[in-house]
Write a structure and sequence with these properties.
By secondary structure, the protein is mainly α. Helix content is 66%, strand content 0%. The chain starts with 9 loop residues before the first helix and ends with a helix.
Length: 47
């Protein structure tokens, strides 16, 4: 299990995260952030 890290998302990404959660696509904010980081990692690896 990973360690807890506190981050500030700002209004835009906080709303984005809340929307994903309300759609039922993810169980919690950590799942949303991990999914987005995986996408970022994939894009970065293409460079």
């Amino acid at each position: 299990m990973g360690r807890n890290t506190s981050i500030s998302l700002g209004n835009h990404f906080e709303n984005f995260t809340k929307n994903r959660l309300s759609e039922g696509r993810y169980k919690n904010a950590s799942e949303v952030v991990r999914a987005e980081l995986r996408l970022l990692e994939e894009e970065e690896n293409k460079l």
